[in-house]
Amino acid sequence: MDLGLVRTGIDCDVCENTRGSGCVAAVRDQTAQGHGESEWNLKNLFCGWVDVDLSVKGREEAVTSGQALKQAGLKFDLVFTSLLKRAHQTLDIVLQEIGQTDLPVVKSWKLNERHYGGLTGLNKADAAAKYGNKQVQIWRRSYNVPPPVMEEDHPMNNVIVNNPKFSMIRKEDFPKVESLETTQRRVVAFWTEEIVPQIKARKQVLVVAHGTSLRGLVKYLEGISDEEVMNLNLPTGIPFVYDLDENMKPIKTLQYLADEETVLKSIAKVASVGGTTKHMY
C-alpha cells in the first residue's frame, strides 16, 4: 500500500517550482502483517481488494515517510485516499508525524489497489507453480493482461463483494479482476476530475493510494510505454516528488525524499519479489 501527495504554489526544500503550478509526491509501504491478517504478508499472498491491516514494517515506514514530508516543509489542505484501511492507517500515522491530524479526508474506491481477481489470496509461489512463473509475471507486471476473473465461488469473493465500504460502487463498475490498464483508467479519471481541480485552485493536497494505483499514475504522468512499465518499480516507504507545469505535466522525472542508497535498496527489495530491475531515480 502507498502514500501520495500533491502540492502547488508553495516553496519547499524539494521543488523549485513556485510559479503557481504544481508538485506531486508518493510513497509505498507494506500490507497485512497485523492482528489476524499477518499471514497475507508472511505467506506472500496476493491481496488486492481484501481489506487487511498495515504491517508493523508498514507502520514504521509510514513514520519515516511522515518525517520526510515534514523535513521537506510540506503542509496540506485536503486528503484523498482509497477505501482500504491499510491506506487509512498509513494516513493516520503520516498526519500525526506532520502535525496535521485535522485535515478533511475524501475517500474513493477509484484509488483502491488493483483487484487481482482469481489470484487473490494465492501465495505467489503457489500461483507460479500452478500457472507457470512466466504467466504469473505477465499478469503481475504487464499493462493490459489481466489475471483470471474472480468467480462467485472464490473464497474471497463474498468477503470483497459484501464489504460495506464498497456498497456505493455500481454493479457495472464493480471489478471481478483488473489489469494495470483498467486500474490506471479509474485512477487517472479520479486524478483528472477530482484532484487536478484542487491543485489548480492552489490547494495543497495529500493523496494516499497503493502500489499499482501509483504505477498507473506514474505511467500516465511520465508517458511510460506499455512495455517499459513492466519493469517499473516504486520503492516502499519513500515519498517521491514531481514538479508540474501549468498543464499538470512533470517538468522533470520524480525525485525521492531519501538518499540514493536508501532508495536503491528499497527498489531492489521490491524488484526481487517479481524478478524485475528497472527503477527511476
From TrEMBL:
<dbReference type="InterPro" id="IPR029033">
    <property type="entry name" value="His_PPase_superfam"/>
</dbReference>
<feature type="site" description="Transition state stabilizer">
    <location>
        <position position="210"/>
    </location>
</feature>
<keyword id="KW-0324">Glycolysis</keyword>
<feature type="binding site">
    <location>
        <begin position="113"/>
        <end position="116"/>
    </location>
    <ligand>
        <name>substrate</name>
    </ligand>
</feature>
<feature type="active site" description="Tele-phosphohistidine intermediate">
    <location>
        <position position="35"/>
    </location>
</feature>
<dbReference type="GO" id="GO:0004619">
    <property type="term" value="F:phosphoglycerate mutase activity"/>
</dbReference>
<feature type="binding site">
    <location>
        <position position="86"/>
    </location>
    <ligand>
        <name>substrate</name>
    </ligand>
</feature>
<dbReference type="InterPro" id="IPR013078">
    <property type="entry name" value="His_Pase_superF_clade-1"/>
</dbReference>
<protein>
    <recommendedName>
        <fullName>phosphoglycerate mutase (2,3-diphosphoglycerate-dependent)</fullName>
        <ecNumber>5.4.2.11</ecNumber>
    </recommendedName>
</protein>
<dbReference type="GO" id="GO:0006096">
    <property type="term" value="P:glycolytic process"/>
</dbReference>
<dbReference type="GO" id="GO:0016791">
    <property type="term" value="F:phosphatase activity"/>
</dbReference>
<feature type="binding site">
    <location>
        <begin position="140"/>
        <end position="141"/>
    </location>
    <ligand>
        <name>substrate</name>
    </ligand>
</feature>
<dbReference type="InterPro" id="IPR005952">
    <property type="entry name" value="Phosphogly_mut1"/>
</dbReference>
<comment type="similarity">
    <text>Belongs to the phosphoglycerate mutase family. BPG-dependent PGAM subfamily.</text>
</comment>
<keyword id="KW-0413">Isomerase</keyword>
<dbReference type="Pfam" id="PF00300">
    <property type="entry name" value="His_Phos_1"/>
</dbReference>
<feature type="binding site">
    <location>
        <position position="124"/>
    </location>
    <ligand>
        <name>substrate</name>
    </ligand>
</feature>
<feature type="active site" description="Proton donor/acceptor">
    <location>
        <position position="113"/>
    </location>
</feature>
